[in-house]
Amino acid sequence: MRNSWPGNIRELQNFIERAVILSPGRVLRAPLGELERAPTAGLAVCSTLEETERNHILKVLGETNGVVGGRNGAAKRLGLKRTTLIYKMQKLGIAR
Are residues 86 and 55 both part of a single domain? Predict the structure, then answer.
């Protein structure tokens, strides 16, 4: 009762059932270590879709050494027309 539950109701129900099954004797011993969320090390959390899109375009441009069009360009890798990628870059403030 003192802890807030980080998941949905089905996860809470499964957690309680597991605690009942695994608890020795008549005292319920919930495995509280399972309540800790796994760290998201190495994952960048973006606040908006626009920021995520910008970061992805920058990553692909880095992989293509700044080449926008052509067979090995960023537009091809992103599945966009060259002109569409250029428009998105301008909109997101990405310089060539």
Answer: yes
- For the chain, what is the domain count? 2
On whether the CB atoms of residues 73 and 67 are closer than 8 A, the answer is yes
Tokens for 66? 């700044």
Distance CA 70, CA 78 (A): 12
Q: Which range marks the domain in which residue 12 is found?
A: 1-37
Return d(Cα 28, Cα 95) in angstroms, integer: 60
CB atoms inside a 10 Å sphere around CB 61: 21
Write the pLDDT tens digit of every residue in 10-20.
888 888 888 88
Q: What is the pTM of this model?
A: 0.53
> SS3 letters for 24-72?
CCCCCCCCHHHHCCCCCCCCCCCCCHHHHHHHHHHHHHHHCCCCCCCCC
